[in-house]
Amino acid sequence: MSEEKMLDIESMSSKDALGYFLPKVDEDARQAKKEGRLVCWSASIAPPEFCTAMDIAMVYPETHAAGIGARHGSPALLEVAENKGYDQDICSYCRVNMGYMELMKQQAMTGITPKTLEESPASRVPLPDVVLTCNNICNTLLKWYENLAKELHVPLINIDVPFNHEYPVSKHAKRYIVGEFKEAIRQLEELTGRPFNYDKFFEVQKQTQRSIAAWNKIATFFRYKPSPLNGFDLFNFMGLAVAARSLNYSEITFNKLVKELEEKVSNQKWAFGENEKSRVTWEGIAVWIGLGHTFKELKGRGSLMTGSAYPGMWDVSYEPGNLESMADAYSRTYINCCLEQRGAVLEQVCRDGKCDGLIMHQNRSCKNMTLLNNEGGQRVQKNLGIPYVIFDGDQCDPRNFSEAQFDTRVEALCETMEEQKTSEGGKR
């Protein structure tokens, strides 16, 4: 990176940095392919540290699909996938990715860009030379990436992570995962034809922890009431927590946001100005296809999102150089834990955000994240006295999301929160 470019980055706002670095991740992958270096397609919470240490460029199909959904380009790719036989009940991230893969395969085999791909807002990430997955968030990822490997004739690295029926993560589970890490290293050595670079790996680990520390710092600003931070911004910045947590791209951007939030607190500049009437926790993946609508509906009612367990899944804090600590970090995602721990995490998110209500996304495309929605809502309502509503939706398939239903549920929640505040004398 040139000195001039560094100077430009230094003067950027956090949003400008996000707008620069997130596309740069894809550009890095394209450049790697041109230079003959390897490109890996990776699951979102699979550890990128191993590939990054071996100079393998990373692409994240879930983030890629989310971006396509946010740009209203998912229906065309969903149609491609479904015409190839992928069922509508399959995760829409997966189906969008399968559609993109099919179009890229056609382009590679014929030399002609299919019209659907040409017209798509999808970032043109190259096809992978290897795929890396991990089942610490869902088992769909295993079959999804097995399919990618088969269709593209590329190696699959799978890091198996046991479900935590008890918490904290057991010693034997961590030791098992360390074994999986070592097997992944062996596979990378075989794939690249060179020994694993442990010195660089240690540096990548330290970079990851600096990025995650800054990411976690951002969430602490939800504790201010009024809040300087709008939770929907976390959904946008989360793209770097997923795709670049082992690069300095995320550290630079997150530290900029922290500094801006500190300045807002000092100057008493709040996210909703004087219009913050209530605060809600959002449980589940964002509705990328309706991100603007969901935000505007809540904002129009003065309801600020100040809590969500979803961005917290990228809190992979660990001790660099300690593989068991790293194993613990990649195992303890709250949807890889028993109901008791998952409920405790949701409660803490509600407390930290000083939330008055809970809105839960019953996501057709993510059974694992929505299976226990009602149980989680009942627990929060019982233990914290916080009302909740559930709406039907999807992360990338617009056929499964109704703006009218969402609006109705938000209206009901806001009325309940207001009634509760009135009955409690405005204390909440």
Write the layout of secondary structure elements.
Elements: H1 3-11, H2 14-35, E1 39-42, H3 49-53, E2 57-59, H4 61-70, H5 74-83, H6 92-110, H7 115-118, E3 130-134, H8 140-152, E4 156-159, H9 171-192, H10 198-219, H11 231-243, H12 248-266, E5 278-283, H13 291-300, E6 303-307, H14 323-331, H15 339-352, E7 357-363, H16 367-370, H17 373-384, E8 388-393, H18 403-423
Parallel strand pairs: 1-2, 1-3, 3-4, 5-6, 5-7, 7-8
What does this structure look like?
Helices cover 56% and strands 9% of the residues. The protein is an alpha/beta fold and 428 residues long. The protein has two domains: 12-202, Rossmann fold; 259-423, Rossmann fold, CATH 3.40.50. The strands form two sheets. It has a four-stranded parallel β-sheet with strand order 2-1-3-4, sandwiched between helices. Strands 6-5-7-8 form a four-stranded parallel β-sheet, with helices on both faces. Helix 9 (171-192) crosses helix 14 and helix 10 packs parallel to helix 12 (248-266). The longest helix is centred in the N-terminal third of the chain and has 22 residues, at 14-35.
